[in-house]
Amino acid sequence: MHYLAEIVPKPPFHQLMMNGYYKLIDNKLIFLLFIAIMLDIGTGLLKSLVQKSTQGKPHSTKGIIGVLKHMTVFFSIVVIYPYFDIQGLSVYVDSFVLAVISTYAISIAENWGQAKLPGYQYLSKYLAKLQDDYDGRTNSEKLTDILNELKNENKK
Fold this sequence. Notes:
Layout: H1 2-7, H2 13-24, H3 28-50, H4 60-86, H5 90-114, H6 120-124, H7 139-155
């Protein structure tokens, strides 16, 4: 078998990459990633349509930036996937894609809950963004606010 490998030349790298791109058409994880991204965009838009505050309502800048982020994630994965596959490291890129899909699943659940769609009460027990005490600020931002309040009280 070793002798035969020396007789049959290995295809050039660019052909291996093109074959990898063709194989992505039938890749179930890539398809699932695409569906997750579409659901995230859809539930995000739905959430923004039912928002009461002006800050949560849809506007073109936020929408374009969001779509560009989704496109960057998707196309980055599509570009690197065949390379890892050729190197025999597809298990690592599959794991990464699953992690990205799970992140999108959390985002979809958050959008679902913020839009108050059926079942959102169940989700609110597990997701920070859906809990009453969530304000979206980091601990350092909260600490800065507390310190500023103390400074203002001392000045009085």
